[in-house]
Amino acid sequence: MGLDKINSPQDIKNLSIEELKIIASDIRKGILNRVNKIGGHLGPDLGIVEATIAMHYVFNSPIDKIVFDVSHQIYPHKMLTGRKHGFLDEEKLFEITGYSNPDESEHDNFIIGHTSTSISLACGLAKARDLKKENYNVIALIGDGSLSGGEAYEGFNNAAMLNSNFIAIVNDNEMSIAKNQGGLYKNLEDLRKNNGNVENNFFKSLGFEYIYLNDGNDIEKLIETFKKVKDSKKPIVVHIHTLKGKGYEPAEENKERYHWTIPNFMDDNQTFTQKETYESITTDFILDKKSKGEPVVAITPATPGATGFYQEFRDKLGENYTDVGIAEEHAIAYASALAKNGAKPILAVLSSFIQRTYDQLSQDLALNKSPAIILVFWGAITNADSTHLGVFDIPLVSNIPNIVHLNPTNKEEYIAMLNWAYNQNEHPVVIRVPYMECYSSGINDDTDYSDLNKFKVLNKGEKIGIIALGNFLSLGKAIKEELKFENINATLINPCFASRIDEDLLNQLKENHKIIITLEDGVLDGGFGEKISRFYSKTEVKVLNYGAKKEFTDRIPIEKLYQKYRLTKEQIKEDILHLI
Amino acid sequence: MGLDKINSPQDIKNLSIEELKIIASDIRKGILNRVNKIGGHLGPDLGIVEATIAMHYVFNSPIDKIVFDVSHQIYPHKMLTGRKHGFLDEEKLFEITGYSNPDESEHDNFIIGHTSTSISLACGLAKARDLKKENYNVIALIGDGSLSGGEAYEGFNNAAMLNSNFIAIVNDNEMSIAKNQGGLYKNLEDLRKNNGNVENNFFKSLGFEYIYLNDGNDIEKLIETFKKVKDSKKPIVVHIHTLKGKGYEPAEENKERYHWTIPNFMDDNQTFTQKETYESITTDFILDKKSKGEPVVAITPATPGATGFYQEFRDKLGENYTDVGIAEEHAIAYASALAKNGAKPILAVLSSFIQRTYDQLSQDLALNKSPAIILVFWGAITNADSTHLGVFDIPLVSNIPNIVHLNPTNKEEYIAMLNWAYNQNEHPVVIRVPYMECYSSGINDDTDYSDLNKFKVLNKGEKIGIIALGNFLSLGKAIKEELKFENINATLINPCFASRIDEDLLNQLKENHKIIITLEDGVLDGGFGEKISRFYSKTEVKVLNYGAKKEFTDRIPIEKLYQKYRLTKEQIKEDILHLI
Fold it and tell me: Nearest to residue A231, comparing CAs of A168, A141, A166, A170?
């Protein structure tokens, strides 16, 4: 009896340990199959197979409610809860998401893709249960990496006050995406070394009961352990030690490489081309400063690989590199203070995760006018999962006073902006790193951006003005070319800045332009284009704003989104001609 | 020798303990004088007098750098660092702010007004020091209440990794603004009871060295303790136990009441009128649900008094009340999960502090369409300190997909919105509670807001349309009256919703309106008015947007701000007539 007979957690309740082991083996094959076909989270899922089986063996989902932190370890759960086709059936791999999603199954309680939320969410579920005098288990499954996030800590601090059932399973695989960082991890290490017995237990210090299992990949022991805590009447932490990547040797050996992977990772012949990227430009820039003995500090909130901060780069930087762990709030404040005290911090963060930091950007950074550099990667309209969209960062960041928000459009411009941001001491600077193939203009750029909010006019035309921000400059160029066929010589502008508008230029444009169009690779609401609309709203000039609609999209192909948002050159030309 | 001779920390270095005690007494008088004259933080400042004197006696500011968490306890420091006139000289009370501010003194390192930031900021200062091979002490002074914030925890986790000097002074006065909440506080209580010796020490679990002083108001012992940790080569926590409100008996006895106070608190004859407020309407609403046995949960992130959640209310609610401590991120996720599991959470939060929660609003709440209710208080253009502005919440909240953002304009409308939000199960609802005297229309309101984004037309006129959001409806009415003198019968609209626009209505308005003006009590950039401008930007209709400029203002009188932003009826009328 293997996974083929399992369609719900009920189906494993009466199996023997040996049968459960066969299912574990089948689940591993499913994980490897899916990830090799379409990419995804590999190491964390391989490591949590046994624990997931034991959880479903002991607990009674969906009556007992399980919350999966960040969802990096949810594949085995999906396979046990009626969704194995998403792993085994080539036709259906895309039918399920890689994340917790109640639309797929009653066994998922929330849509989750950001870290460190499970404790707070489970705490709310438990409190509602208690108020309604209901009786079941609430379980949060959280990885050690997620423990560094402030939201998780806030959740622990409060969940400890529940005078009722609350089970936090801490899946300790000794890794965040990269190596764990922070004082807490020494505590976890001590706990692992001493079979759960140390002088100062972090979880106990917060008021939790605590139980440790070193053999976190042993189904029998897991079942035994979970049975002990089932129906606990107090908040308890179950700390299990698992092997990240278990069952696939390369993933066991190179845990960071296989945390998440692109497809076809099993292909031995896969080669990585060493071409220039915006990531490599960034790391080259930082290494150059380091080599000159400058107090540059490259900072990542636990996503070094995603922003090109590879191991070699980290090794070269040494003390000039800080991985703060999953701790975006701290990352901003830390960068701000580094800058205030004369160092040169460069923080690289993904668009979706900078959402954690609005208040720190505002209070710790902008209000203090700290000249730190924040690089936002992956800001764009993409086919991403609804939890990892990159369209909201422009409104979030650019509307904060004092922040200079720059949007380079090619290699040379990016370097010029980095140089300017690095050498000035007046402004917090956020650079939205281009999300596209690296494009070199071949022309050295030494623009001085001290003259804030000065837009660059690339082509001086008339009638139609195209203001194309960042990634969308190429779209702007294409539209300009299209309009030539209509005998329109459109003005093309690279605004560079998204934080303010170039009022002088916009006033000049009024003289011989009837229509201004704005293009931005992000959501329209609260974004760059609306600033232009507001400026012209009391004049005769008409404005057409192009960008994403305010919505959570979910794995929709980019072309479809472009079509829907009228972001093709043909559609925009049509709109312009219609308005003329 | 008393405070009159002290103009910088250097001046206390050679004094005797007895002389320092006299200065402590003088400082207390200064605190009481200022706060009684102009209001401010009383209890935390009275409690930290001796520790501040000892800090400046032992450490060497500004070479040694001290970071004050949230600044609720910075008055004694200000008095010792050349700013005693702001406490003693009636003419100069307003010359200094109540918060840490480097523009005032080189002894302040950052502008700070939000909690839980000091550890991260000090961590950055220390790291920059180390990179530059400098040598001095970096000290964070953080209250026990601030320890519950995720940013503080993230900071501790990272500061523990510094292999160098880092001193966190934890000022434990057994209180947040209200009573502390969370598992951590049991740990602190145990530490206090056992003179710093417990089985699981929270700080030690994170890798800090630790030292405890129970007599946190004894200058001599404080000096002795600080001398022990001065020049420490490792991160260390100095946990001192102080008495909040010390030296002013009413503040010692009623710690919450005197955490912060309005002026003239010493006036025995001060009476509190029991008039109806938006706060009392809120608590009445919640108590009514509780009395019906419904699973309502009132939630505060440690600011119950500021939103009308007074002790009597909390006592009546019992298990239906949760103070999560200073933990806004958790508060949102917790509310979301409560709603998902059938409870009825109502979270009350201040505009300035909801800034901590963008990601949780987006991911934990909105993406999951949890029907929680978030009430935003103090959202308005005010004369607040730059760290407590209430103008940024509309752009922050309203541009998140799935959130319904409501803006009531009077008592009956507020109740109608509360009722609708409470009884529906589809949408996360954020209500921006009016920031003004409570105004009753006297007319029962039973609007069903299920028909989302439907604006209310209060007066159907022509030529000019006034769309006046929330607090500014009264300004809209005034402008309408002004325009009557010009024989213009303006259309007046209460949009209610800030999250989307009423496209049907806006299209209708095009027929007989030339100018639309928008009014919002918040920043224009990314806000409500820009949505209207964008809508009309491709039409003949002109739009004038009114609201605050994107800037950090600092204690500027509201009238001045209104004048600057052209938010008076006279200015707006002038603009309209000019445009016609």
Answer: A166
Looking at beta carbons, which residues of chain B come within 8 Å of A368? 102, 110-111
Asked if the B278-432 domain carries CATH number 3.90.1150.10, the reply is no
Could you tell me which residues come within 8 angstroms of residue A83 by beta carbon, excluding any fewer than 6 positions away? A96, A104, A105
How many contacts (CB atoms, under 8 Å) link A and B? Answer: 402
The pLDDT score that the predictor gives to residue B269 is: 59
Give the gap in angstroms from C-alpha B360 to the nearest C-alpha of chain A: 8
**β-bridge partners, A457:** A493
Rounded (10°) CA dihedral B575, A529, A550, A474: 170
- DSSP calls for B126-178: HHHHHHTT----EEEEEETGGGGSHHHHHHHHHHTT-SS-EEEEEEE-S-SSS
Q: Hey, what amino acid is at B94?
A: F
Q: Is the separation of the CB atoms in A244 and A47 below 8 Å?
A: yes
- At the top level of CATH, which class does the domain A456-579 belong to? alpha beta
**Whose CA is closest to B572, among B456, B488, B449?**
B488
Q: Give the C-alpha separation, A11 to A81, whole Å.
A: 10
Per-residue 3-state assignment (H helix, E strand, C coil) for B330-374: HHHHHHHHHHHCCCEEEEEEECCCHHHHHHHHHHHHHCCCCCCEE
Residue spans per domain, chain A: 3-261, 278-432, 456-579
Per-residue pLDDT tens for B331-355? 999 999 999 999 999 999 999 999 9
Residue B177 contacts residue B327 (beta carbons within 8 Å): no
- Bridge-partner residues for B323, per DSSP? B300
Mutation pick from A69, A156, A158, A184 vs chain B, by most beta carbons of B within 10 Å, is: A158
CA atoms within a 13 Å half-sphere pointing along the CA-CB vector of B423: 12
Q: How far apart are CA B288 and CA B282, in angstroms?
A: 10
Q: How far apart are alpha carbons B413 and B441 in whole angstroms?
A: 9
* Phi, psi angle pair for B59, to nearest 5°: -90, 170
Closest CA to B551 of A366, A355, A430: A366
Residues B491 and B459: their CA atoms lie apart, in Å, by 5
Express each pLDDT in B153-200 by its tens digit.
999 999 999 999 999 999 999 988 888 889 999 999 999 999 999 999
What letter would DSSP give residue B388?
A: S
Q: Nearest C-alpha of chain A: how many angstroms from B8?
A: 22
Which residue is associated with the tokens 């180390």?
B130
Cα–Cα distances (Å) from A10 to A52, A80, B325, in that order, read 13, 9, 40
Query: Given an 8 Å threshold on Cβ–Cβ distance, is A114 in contact with B387?
Result: no
Residues A224, A229: Cα–Cα separation, whole Å: 9
Which residue among A114, A156, A400 sits closest to B183, beta carbon to beta carbon?
Answer: A156
Measured CA to CA, the distance from residue A522 to residue A432 in angstroms comes to 11
**Half-sphere exposure at residue A412, Cβ-oriented, CA atoms within 13 angstroms:** 9
- Nearest Cα of chain B lies from the Cα of A435 at a distance, in angstroms, of 22
Q: What is the pLDDT of residues A32-51, one digit of tens each?
A: 999 999 999 999 999 999 99
* Intrachain domains B278-432 and B456-579 with the same fold: yes
| Residues lower than pLDDT 50 in chain A | none
Residue B316 per-residue DSSP state: H
Architecture (CATH level 2) of domain B3-261 = 3-Layer(aba) Sandwich (3.40)
* Cα distance between residue B229 and residue B166, in whole Å: 9
Which of B148, B160, B367 is nearest residue A183 as measured by Cβ atoms?
B160
How would DSSP label each residue in A25-90? HHHHHHHHHHHHHH-EE-HHHHHTHHHHHHHHHHS-TTTSEEEESTTTT-HHHHHHTT-THHHH-G
Rounded to whole angstroms, how far apart are CA atoms A168 and B464?
Answer: 59
- Position B176 scores a pLDDT of 83
